[in-house]
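Go through this fold for my students:
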Amino acid sequence: MGEFELVTDGIYQVGGSDLSDSSDAAVYVVSCESGLILIDCGAGRAPEIIVENMKEAGLDPKTITTLVLTHCHVDHIGSVEFFRKEYGCTVVAHTLDADAIESGDPSLTAARWYGTRLPRTTVDVRIEVGHEVIACGTDELHCVHTPGHTPGSIAAYIDRQGSRILFGQDIHGPFSREFRSDIVQWRMSMWKLLDLNADVLCEGHFGIYRPRDRVERYIRGYLDQYAGQ
């Protein structure tokens, strides 16, 4: 039996350490008129479970049109080739992380941290700007460059039923020279996220935060935590 968590109408969490595999970061899916947008896809050890979770939520994985990779770390992107080959979806990542994704560099993808290896992966669309909009029917998924955790980290948001849903993976870090973190850029990125005034935050490892004041407290909490660094 599959497991999932409803975020709001047509938006679900279908993967993560409690839903698919202990090594998986959170996997979210957005249902639009013209198909599904998958946001990250787990570490690569249990993509079939993510698919079952989608089906349990009433979603057809065959309608996945786009897979957005929030950054190059293996716990978020290890299943890319499974979804790309199985469903023919378009893989999107920021250009500053795309080379690491395609090469499978063990340091830049943090694969060494997980004792695994990222297969060579194809990025179909490279985001070259600070703000890119992905159209999905009448919906728009906004991808915002938020460097810091990695050079090509992005956050995404969508406005639905009067609420702004923010997918802000790995706001908490960690930060390492091994994968080219930059704490100064990260702080600027966090202020950028605060300016979005999101009503719901879908985080990469620690779940879903709502309402708006709790989202703000979460982000500001990490700004305070890393204030001296």
About this structure: The chain has one domain: 5-225. The chain has a mean pLDDT of 95. The longest strand covers residues 139-145.
